[in-house]
Automatic annotation (TrEMBL):
It comes from the Bacteria. It is found in: Cytoplasm. Its main location: cytoplasm. Probably acts as a heme chaperone, transferring heme to an unknown acceptor. Binds one molecule of heme per monomer, possibly covalently. Binds 1 [4Fe-4S] cluster. The cluster is coordinated with 3 cysteines and an exchangeable S-adenosyl-L-methionine. Pfam families: Radical_SAM. Residues 23-279 form the Radical SAM core domain. PANTHER family: COPROPORPHYRINIGEN III OXIDASE, RADICAL S-ADENOSYL METHIONINE DOMAIN-CONTAINING PROTEIN 1, MITOCHONDRIAL. This is Heme chaperone HemW. Residues 1-20 are annotated as: Disordered.
């Protein structure tokens, strides 16, 4: 059911932002819609998701109506703060959004459209389990205005899927992509590497299978062992072996080379796209520090430097909204040092890089050694921007530490 929420100060029941909040209407505004339902819990998952046995009074069939209450609530909050803007991106994440009927997702999207407006060229993405995508589902989502489907493939190797506790039929990935194409939706597929027992040959097979689908975008994430997950407990008990850092590095180098040869360019450490228009604009909004409101239990938001997050459980979330109270559990306003750290952490991961003048002067002395160590591109640094090399992407956390020392 996800990691603990951060500490923070209380949020007023009416959700009002701090009185000195200055919203820049020129800053893009994004919307995240969290659907916290899953049929089963994957052993590695640390997201705020719930199976039917864990809902404890919350109802999946009432969820769209509950979330729409928060949409209306947020309209009031942002209106009082002078911050109403059309959404430039909308992202349905989870959980498994496509466990809900497409009509529910359409109603949620229409609620956003009514409250804020949606830009004519908006990117609207739905994450999907391959088993839940049919022609009818894809067509209904497209008719609602969805432009992009992000399909959770993870692996093409059945035993690797089993190790990850993924239950979808691998053959349905092809079916889901075909359905999305027939509905004129852009397609992204997600992969995970470093599962217990996964070999480099297994990974090559999965990457090649993903490319055979000819998607517009591929995400490839290293498996991270999160505390409190089933997989973490299995590793602690010695039932499975923890991911090997060197093997994961080999897997990353393979996927980068293979995708680049196939015409997909990296634009963020874990993401590749066929062209600029196929990049995930929604995720770029996070990495570039834009504004967004996250709707749903456990969802996080960022508006004009104010960060706030909702209560985690769907039942508590629904109860607060039923009483017309803010579902937020807490908020914070990061200080200048925290904002600098966050900018380095996020913006250094993207291909456009991080302007050197946004790094604290004391840390800029490390740039020469980072170039010498082959971690950042020398020519880009001389032009005023930190851009990771391939080696730097493999050691991105180490680069961030040296840029924030």
């Amino acid at each position: 059911m996800g990691s603990a929420l951060p500490d923070g100060e209380p949020v007023p029941e009416d959700g009002s932002l701090p009185p000195d909040t200055q919203i820049d209407l020129a800053t893009p505004f994004s919307v995240y819609l969290h659907v916290p339902f899953c049929r089963v819990r994957c052993g590695y998952c640390d997201f705020n998701t719930y199976t039917s046995e864990e809902l404890h009074g919350a109802r999946q069939d009432q969820y769209a109506d509950t979330l729409l209450r928060e949409v209306k609530f947020s309209r009031s909050v942002l209106s009082r703060a002078g911050g109403i803007r059309a959404a430039s991106t909308v992202f349905f994440g989870g959980g498994t959004p496509t466990l809900l009927p497409p009509g529910d997702l359409a109603r949620m999207l229409n609620g956003v459209r009514d409250a804020f407006g949606v830009a004519p060229d908006a990117e609207i993405t739905v994450e999907a389990n391959p088993d839940t995508v049919t022609d009818a589902v894809a067509e209904e989502l497209a008719a609602a205005g969805v432009t992009r489907l992000s399909i959770g493939m993870q692996s093409a190797v059945p035993r690797v899927l089993t190790a990850l506790d993924r239950t979808h039929n691998p053959a349905n990935v092809t079916t889901a992509v075909a359905a999305a194409r027939r509905a004129n939706l852009n397609v992204s597929v997600d992969l995970i590497y470093g599962a217990p027992g996964e070999t480099l040959d297994d990974w090559r097979a999965s990457v090649d299978a993903a490319l055979d689908l000819e998607p517009d975008h591929i995400s490839a994430y290293a498996l991270i062992i999160e505390a409190g997950t089933k997989l973490a407990r299995q590793i602690k008990r010695g039932e499975v072996v923890a991911p090997d850092d060197d093997v994961q590095a080999d897997m990353y180098e393979y996927v980068d080379a293979r995708l680049s040869a196939a015409g997909l360019d990296w634009y963020e450490v874990s993401n590749w796209a066929r062209n600029l228009s196929q990049r995930s604009r929604h995720n770029l909004a996070y990495w570039q520090g834009s504004d967004w409101w996250g709707f749903g239990p456990g969802a996080h938001s960022h508006i004009a430097g104010v960060r706030f997050w909702n209560v985690k459980h769907p039942a508590a979330y629904a109860q607060r909204l039923a009483h017309q109270n803010s579902p937020a559990a807490g908020r914070e306003i990061p200080d200048a040092k925290a904002r600098t750290l966050e900018a380095v952490l996020l913006r250094s991961r993207i291909r456009e890089g991080l302007p050197i003048d946004e790094i604290e002067s004391a840390s800029r002395t490390n740039i020469a050694s980072l170039i010498a160590d082959g971690l950042i591109d020398g020519a880009s640094a001389l032009s005023g921007t930190v851009v990771l090399t391939l080696r730097g992407r493999l050691l991105a956390d180490a680069v961030v530490r040296r840029l924030t020392d």
